Amino acid sequence: MSDLLCPHCRQQGEPVQITTVKALVLEEFRHLLTDGPYRLCQTPDCGIGYYGPAAPALHPYQLKAPLHFKTGAHPRYACYCNKVTEDEVFHTVREKGLVQMQAIIRSLRGEAQSDCRHKNPLGRCCSERFHEIIDRAKVHPDKPAKGDKAG
Ligand SMILES: [Zn+2]
Question: From the CA of 55, how far away is ligand 1's center (Å)?
């Protein structure tokens, strides 16, 4: 079952549907695609993105969106569908006091789109991680923004 492991870091990646891989790969690398199956390596320091037993591995730079769990990813999306970044979520929670995903997205983008299957690298809904980011922002709501008030 070694085909379950990333060819580089030897960690077990997450299974991902071919539809998602096809939607995420940049046009100029589409010729590398096979029918799969594919997995996604989530090891932060590993340079592999998607891989599979019958497919050449795809690197993060060959994809349309930065993989948020990889070291140096920029920007780090909290929601890939609406291109909302972790920083934007932090600011919206702290400055507007919004703590609901839909409200935060609407506040930033006017409306909320949902197409996780084709936009999120894992092909899954972003909401679980989005809420973790909201929770983290709530823990430090008073982090000084201007730095001019000494305790
Ligand atoms: Zn890897």
Answer: 15
Q: Which residues surround ligand 1, an ion (CB under 5 A)?
A: 6, 8-9, 41, 43, 46, 48
pLDDT digits (tens, 9 = 90+) for 16-45: 999 999 999 999 999 999 998 999 999 999
- Give me the number of domains the chain comprises: 2
- What's the gap in Å between 144 CA and the centre of ligand 1? 37
Identify the domain containing residue 11 by its residue range. 2-62
Residue 128 CA from chain centroid, whole number = 12
Please count the residues of the chain.
Answer: 151
Q: Name the phi and psi angles at 27, rounded to 5.
A: -50, -45
- CATH code, domain with 110: 1.10.10
CATH number at residue 8: 2.20.25.270
Q: What is the pLDDT of residue 3?
A: 73
